[in-house]
Design goal:
The structure holds 2 protein chains of 2 kinds.
Chain A (H helix, E strand, L loop, with lengths): L1 H14 L1 H38 L1 E6 L5 H12 L10 E3 L1 H11 L1 H7 L12 E5 L6 H10 L3 E6 L3 H41 L1 H9 L4 H19 L1 H18 L13 H31 L3
Antiparallel strand pairs in A: 1-3, 1-4, 2-3
Helix pairs in contact in A: 1-9, 2-7, 2-9, 2-10, 2-11, 4-5, 7-9, 7-11, 9-11, 10-11
Chain B lengths: L3 E9 L5 E10 L4 E5 L6 H8 L7 E6 L2 E2 L8 H5 L2 E5 L10 H11 L4 H14 L15 H13 L5 E5 L7 H18 L2 E5 L3 H7 L2 E6 L2 E6 L11
Parallel strand pairs in B: 3-8, 3-9, 6-7, 7-8
Antiparallel strand pairs in B: 1-2, 1-4, 4-5, 9-10
Classes of the chains: A alpha+beta, B alpha/beta.
The complex binds adenosine-5'-triphosphate (ATP) and magnesium ion.
Chain lengths: 296, 233
């Protein structure tokens, strides 16, 4: 019985050729965009996380700051939303000096006879942010604090790029959502046509005691099949397109900091999700159509 | 407990037409009942309530122990599997052969091929059409098509056969044949038959129980009744 339903569903895809083609085309375009959005967002998430992990704000304190004033600054910094409280590192100028001395022989000799009074270095806080897009704002807030001399962070261009990518990601998601709705709409109409063309058969099925499940299944199958055909090209795009992109760019975009996710197993997960989305969109379309036009 | 029980049954359509108004009726197992009356008096509405194509607006309709009014949409198929329905316009699927048409209810119930075949053959034997198994409906005469329809209705061995003007499209001679088939089913299998008809000759010849409706109300109910025309018809 299920086999028959599947056969019926598949057959009617070919029967309503033009509308079927329209729905398939639309789901293909939608799913390609879904694929692009997914690849983009996975990569943006991946490298922003990496950048965020590396990105440090260094706060140089006024050399005349007293102990209380330093404490006060620390509390203020802790109260900032975008600062990771567990990763605040305080270093006195003596500690910074020692660190630098241990790192290089030249520094060691130059700094060797600096004492606390002649040491021109400054006490510092090293901080990590939670959201890299906000790093600029956070740095400015810290700069305004009393007894803070200067604030340094990052390379500038990287944050701007992250911000741009996040915007592209958002626009892609918006477009995808709109396109999914259009696809569902087209699938509903395709299924509606099938339902209308088989109305007599459906009426008779009902009269002779076919259950709703049996009546509905071919249409659900048809919807899922439409989505599934629509997912073929997007899946190929992901499988081969992403691998090619990765090979051509040697694994990073513009700057070595922006690293791409390795193709395997990433492309397989992504393809799986695309197929799943395709079938769910098809199912939603056909379920809506059969609820509306089958009246079962 | 009667097989069919209709109590104080009203049916008011959405457009405000009252098709039945306070019907009371009981039909026992194995009976053969004609339902007659002028056009628009509510005959089809009455039998549509028997197979839950329509729900009574008020009152009770009980068929084989199932309260039709309380039956949820999703469960209607359970009632339909217990009865067979024969229509004036046959409602056969033109692209299916006679065999496939008769097998249709069993297939849509999900029966196995090996279970379907003997039942289809038996049903076609019942109506005397076994040799037309591979024909398509359009290759058959109207009478034969109606017999296919009866075979399809009987394929699931229902206790009740509902017929809405089954001879309405047939000439008198063919009508007679169809009535013989129905009478045979009633007598040999004990199937209860409720048949709506306008055919005076059939009603008078068969001498069965005759129920007459007028404006949605039962006006006569006689065993071995005769066809009575409504005044002015
Ligand atoms: N689906 C419907 N919606 C609204 N009104 C309906 C509907 N079906 C029937 N009616 C009305 O209900 C009344 C009874 O109709 P019904 O079909 O039961 O009559 P009938 O006795 O079968 O007539 P006929 O002998 O012509 O078949 C008629 O006035 C008809 O117009
Ligand atoms: Mg009628």
């Amino acid at each position: 019985m299920l086999l028959r339903s599947i056969k019926d569903g598949v057959r009617s895809v070919f029967r309503n050729f033009s509308l079927s083609t329209a729905s398939i085309l639309c789901s293909t375009i939608t799913l390609i965009l879904v694929a692009v959005a997914m690849v983009l967002s996975a990569n943006v998430d991946n490298f922003t996380k990496k950048i965020e992990d590396d990105m440090t704000i260094v706060v140089f304190l006024d050399s005349k700051a007293t102990k209380e004033e330093v404490e006060n600054i620390k509390t203020q910094i802790e109260n900032l939303d975008n600062i990771d409280e567990d990763e605040i590192v305080y270093k006195t100028k003596a500690e910074v000096k020692m660190e630098m001395q241990s790192e290089s022989a030249i520094f060691n000799t130059v700094m060797g006879d600096w004492n606390d009074d002649t040491n021109p270095l400054k006490d510092t806080f090293q901080l990590k942010v939670k959201d890299i897009e906000q790093i600029n704002k956070t740095a400015k807030e810290i700069e305004k604090m009393d007894k803070v001399s200067t604030v340094q962070y990052g390379e500038g261009i990287v944050e701007k790029m992250v911000g741009a990518f996040k915007w592209i990601e958002r626009i892609a998601y918006g477009t995808v959502l709109a396109l999914i709705l259009v696809t569902i709409f087209l699938i509903i109409n395709t299924i509606k046509l099938t339902i209308f063309s088989r109305q007599k058969e459906i009426e008779i099925m009902r009269l002779v005691g076919a259950s709703n499940f049996v009546i509905k299944t071919p249409f659900i199958v048809e919807g899922m099949f439409l989505g599934l055909i629509g997912s073929v090209i997007p899946v190929l795009v992901v499988l081969f397109g992403y691998t090619t992109l990765y090979d051509v760019t040697k694994g990073y975009l513009f700057s070595p900091i922006i690293q791409l996710i390795k193709p395997t197993p990433f492309i397989y997960y992504t393809s799986g999700i695309i197929i799943l989305i395709a079938m769910i969109v098809g199912m939603i379309g056909s379920a809506r159509a059969s609820r509306k036009y089958l009246k079962v | 407990m009667k097989f069919i029980k209709i109590q104080d049954c009203y049916k008011v359509y959405k457009n405000g037409v009252t098709a039945t108004a306070g019907l009371n009726l009981e039909i026992s197992k194995g009976e053969f009942v004609f339902i007659i009356g002028a056009t628009g008096c509510g005959k089809s509405t009455l039998i549509k309530m028997l197979y839950r194509e329509e729900k009574p607006t008020k009152g009770k309709v009980i068929v084989g122990g199932i309260d039709v009014a309380k039956l949820r949409n999703g469960k209607v198929y359970k009632l339909r599997r217990k009865l067979g329905i024969v229509f004036q316009d046959f409602k056969l699927l033109p692209k299916l052969t006679v065999y496939e048409n008769v097998a249709f209810p069993l297939n849509s119930m999900g029966l196995k091929k090996s279970e379907v075949k003997p039942r289809v053959i038996k049903a076609l034997e019942l109506v005397g059409l076994k040799e037309k198994i591979r024909s398509y409906p359009k290759e058959l005469s109207a009478g034969m098509q109606q017999r296919v329809c009866i075979a399809r209705a009987m394929v699931n061995s229902p206790k009740l056969l509902i017929c809405d003007e089954p001879t309405g499209n047939l000439d008198p001679e063919t009508s007679k044949e169809i009535m013989n088939v129905l009478d045979g089913i009633n007598k040999e299998l004990g199937t209860t038959i409720v048949m709506v008809t306008h055919d005076k000759d059939i009603v008078n010849r068969m001498k069965k129980r005759v129920i007459m409706l007028e404006n949605g109300v039962l006006i006569s109910d006689e065993l071995k009744g005769k066809y009575k025309a409504h005044e002015g018809v």
